[in-house]
């Protein structure tokens, strides 16, 4: 069995795309609200060569998840073929300000307070308030503060078997 997990965003996140010449049986899908407020999500099962479409690919619509709760989707087994995807869209966006020293590589952040952090050393075009960038070269140093940009408080985990 394999497991994949990711923090969800307010834009489409393709959590799992089946590679060429493979088929996967989805055994479990978990969505956890790690925040202090209610959040919601849509889940889509997107066939190969198709795109996210709320009228055709959405299988869960605006499921509301209270703070600290986890949703489990495990009563039905789903088989995905080559190119098929499981995708999510979540809301609301995270607004919590965090120290720049806690940033992680590959995540997208928005500068809130530059402080003494030289954000250009970590992938930003400048150190101006409001600049959005993808973190590189963690860990950061300094007193700057950021928020995650475009992420929700939800994380999703999919477990699957190759069939």
The CATH level-2 architecture of the largest domain is identified as Sandwich
Overall strand count: 13
Largest sheet: 5 strands, antiparallel
Share of helix among residues?
Answer: under 10%
| Tertiary shape | elongated
Distance between the termini: 11 Å
Q: Tell me what portion of residues adopts beta-strand conformation.
A: over 45%
Short note summarizing the structure:
By secondary structure, this protein is mainly beta. The chain is built from no helices and 13 strands.
Q: What attributes does this structure have?
A:
163 residues; 2 domains; four-stranded antiparallel sheet; 13 strands; mainly beta; Jelly Rolls
Secondary structure topology:
Layout: E1 2-9, E2 13-17, E3 23-33, E4 39-46, E5 58-65, E6 70-73, E7 78-81, E8 85-91, E9 98-99, E10 108-113, E11 132-134, E12 145-148, E13 151-162
Antiparallel strand pairs: 1-13, 2-8, 3-6, 3-7, 3-13, 4-5, 4-8, 9-12, 10-11, 10-12
Describe the 3D structure.
The mean pLDDT is 95. It is built from no helices and 13 strands. The protein is mainly beta and 163 residues long. The strands form three sheets. Strands 1, 3, 6, 7 and 13 form a five-stranded antiparallel β-sheet that branches. It has two domains: 2-91 and 152-162, Jelly Rolls; 98-148, no CATH class.
